[in-house]
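User: Could you go from structure to sequence for me? I need the amino acid at each position, not a summary. Structure tokens:
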């Protein structure tokens, strides 16, 4: 019976993205080896997070509270909404500290292969939120991939008739990099989004 539990643990770990069966075995053994200071706190944290994590009713951010801390923060600019794919993007923006507005997490990009459709974007719901907060700018911060750009176009078309300004992150030369090291797509995108000096 104990062997079954161990196998169950390995099987569960192996279901995590990017982790195969061998890695899962290694992780399980590592956890067991560090039972007191890793495995037990880990299992406690998993169950506490599972029972207390919430999706913000406004913006979709994961937090312990809904509305989330960003939506509840009076100092943030509620009239500027940055549309991102998932929570990792929110963390990236927050790390940089440059963005002071609110977010809208859409939870995926349009993809036939992944079965993520226009309905899943819940654009009508987003529209209601934007109207309620008199939002005047939407910043599209979606990946520079075909899926990301298709999604950005669909969102742009949807809000075209409203009076909201729609902007998109510029793609281009990474800060601190040299031109001759750029790949063709990055260089092309940088040229496309050039601006006046
Ligand atoms: Zn929120």
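Assistant: Here is the amino acid at each position, in order:
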């Amino acid at each position: 019976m104990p062997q079954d539990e161990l196998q169950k643990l390995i099987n569960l770990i192996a279901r995590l993205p990017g982790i195969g069966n061998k890695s899962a075995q290694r992780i399980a053994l590592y956890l067991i080896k560090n039972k007191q200071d890793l495995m037990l706190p880990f299992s406690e944290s998993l169950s506490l997070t599972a029972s207390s994590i919430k999706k913000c009713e406004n913006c979709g951010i994961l937090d312990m509270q809904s509305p989330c801390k960003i939506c509840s923060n009076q100092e943030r600019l509620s009239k500027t909404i940055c549309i991102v794919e998932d929570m990792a993007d929110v963390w990236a923006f927050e790390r940089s500290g440059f963005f002071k507005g609110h977010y809208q997490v859409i939870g995926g990009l349009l993809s036939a292969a992944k079965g993520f459709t226009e309905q899943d974007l819940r654009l009508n719901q987003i529209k209601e939120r934007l109207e309620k907060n008199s939002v005047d700018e939407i910043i599209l911060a979606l990946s520079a991939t075909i899926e990301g750009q298709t999604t950005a176009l669909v969102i742009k078309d949807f809000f075209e008739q409203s009076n909201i300004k729609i902007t998109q992150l510029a793609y281009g030369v990474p800060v601190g990099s040299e031109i001759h090291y750029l790949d063709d797509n990055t260089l092309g995108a940088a040229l496309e989004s050039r601006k006046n000096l």
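One structural detail worth keeping in mind: The chain is about 45% helix and 15% strand.
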